[in-house]
Amino acid sequence: xxxxxxxxxxxxxxxxxxxxxxxxxxxxFNQHGFSFTVEDWKKAIGTGPTAYDPALHxxxxxxxxxxxxxxxxQTLNRTRELIEQQPMLPGVLDFIIAVERLGLPxxxxxxxxxxxxxxxxxxxxxxxxxxxxxxxxxxxxxxxxPELFLLAAKKLGIAPSEAVIFEDSPNGIRAAKAAxxxxxxxxxxxxxxMDLSLATRILDSFLQLDPQVLINLTK
Length: 219
Description:
The chain is of the alpha/beta class. It has two domains: 5-16 and 87-217, HAD superfamily/HAD-like (Rossmann fold), CATH 3.40.50; 18-83. The chain has nine helices and six strands; from the N terminus they run βαααααβαβαβαββα. It is elongated.
């Protein structure tokens, strides 16, 4: 079927929020004499906190000395400080503009909460390009469950087979696969070492992608 809409993940795909998040948690763990590595952070990428909650982990390591809610907020503030220093990832803006010129509607489907996603899309000046934004606030189950992507396609008014998804993480790719939607993986510095083999295609960046030939990549 003809391509009629494009669905984007947010974190780690449009802007690198993954390395700032990892570094913020590593700083806090190190302050209390514990290590926190990229491998730890990978357990939380592309899904919700039920998969791995670093705040709960550190609280347990300190025998409850640290309140998970308090350190979650503390680390979130530090993460935001680090994200403020990040530009959009290479080629993202030009690609989004090119897709808009082709008249294809776009959506964002993220396992993060609405305030986080909408806030950064607005700060980056790209919220206007997206017809639909679906977040963890809109579904019962986040990725790797397909619910977010199926909802995004439904709200775009297209069938799953008429969409293509851009993702950076294995959990997102698994969700796309379960939704029956072709998925192009564009990993970041953290997720490029993860298993992305379920993706329809894997590219290094949006710079490699011409939206006018996108339909050929999804075949």
